[in-house]
Specification:
- The protein has 283 residues and is an alpha/beta fold.
- It is built from ten helices and nine strands.
- Strand 2, helix 2 and strand 3 (54-59) form a beta-alpha-beta unit.
- The longest helix is centred in the C-terminal third of the chain and has 23 residues, at 215-237.
- The protein is globular.
Length: 283
């Protein structure tokens, strides 16, 4: 039985780029596919003798949402493994991308570009809600997107993995747009005020040991771990193949980084596939 990834989302958010990345990773990709043709492609992939086992369908601009969701339901009812991916970005970013390329937005409107984008966002809301994975590309480069997909869809893996992404960030620079759960670490003592630790970061043993020596840190860690022990299986039981956990502090350097590393290590012992990103340190 073939495995399908259906790529939908906002115009300008990166659907075509995702198709290129998946094609490089060995997927058979069809770009700009009308939703009405999704069942036809599935039929061809499942014919005797077909060697298509990993198929990415990049659907076109947001029209006929119901037809797309119906097509995906039909594939799943037939026993196919289908993952719906949604590409999103904030309106200001999409405006800049369209202005830089001077392309016309596919959403028909007599008003301006921002209004066309918001109209498309409204039309696509049912698809976004139904998606298994939402990727916010607002602050992503093409290389960031490639790294994100490469972890999950590489050829040697055979199928997409159940993945927990743990990311540290700084609140003044904004909460990651694709976060499912956000944990504020600013209640912890701040190593920044320790002169011996100020120039180090939360990936280093010295910072991690200092934080563990603070009684509140272990207390909070155990409580959060208890919550996640219940929450993560619950998300997965509801059909989520991915969970994005974001941990923030003031600078994105000490507390959130150390807690990200600690929770990632624990999640690996629980058998989850874990991806770690330190947004402010990796930038």
């Amino acid at each position: 039985m073939a495995q399908f990834v259906v790529v939908a989302g906002m115009s300008g958010a990166g659907r075509t780029q995702v198709g290129h990345v998946l094609e490089d990773l060995g997927w058979f990709v069809i770009d700009n596919l009308p939703p009405s043709l999704v069942p036809k492609v599935a039929e061809l992939a499942q014919l005797p003798g077909s060697d298509l086992d990993r198929i990415a369908l990049v659907v076109g601009p947001a029209t006929k949402n119901e037809r797309l969701l119906d097509a995906i339901s039909g594939l799943r009812d037939g026993g196919a493994e289908v993952q719906l991916m949604f590409l999103d970005a904030d309106t200001d970013t999409l405006v800049r991308r369209y202005e830089s390329t001077r392309r016309r937005h596919p959403q028909r409107t007599e008003e301006g570009l921002s209004e066309a984008i918001e109209a498309e966002r409204s039309d696509l809301e049912p698809v976004k809600v139904a998606s298994d994975l939402v990727i916010d590309t607002t602050s992503m480069s093409v290389h960031d997107l490639r790294r994100r997909l490469g972890d999950d869809y590489a050829p040697e893996q055979g199928q997409a993995k159940v993945l927990v992404s743990v990311e540290s960030f700084a609140y003044p620079k904004g909460v990651p747009g694709d976060a499912d759960l956000v944990i504020d670490c600013r209640f912890l003592p701040n190593p920044h005020w320790n002169e011996d630790l100020r120039d180090h970061d939360g990936r280093e043993d010295a910072v991690q040991r200092w934080l563990r020596d603070q009684p509140i840190t272990d207390q909070a860690y155990e409580q959060l771990r208890s919550f996640l022990t219940t929450a993560i299986p619950g998300y997965l039981h509801e059909g989520r193949a991915y969970l994005n956990l974001a941990m923030g502090c003031t600078g994105g350097k000490h507390r959130s980084v150390a807690m990200t590393e600690r929770f990632a290590a624990w999640l690996r012992t629980e058998g989850y596939t874990v991806r770690v990103r330190h947004r402010e340190l990796d930038a």
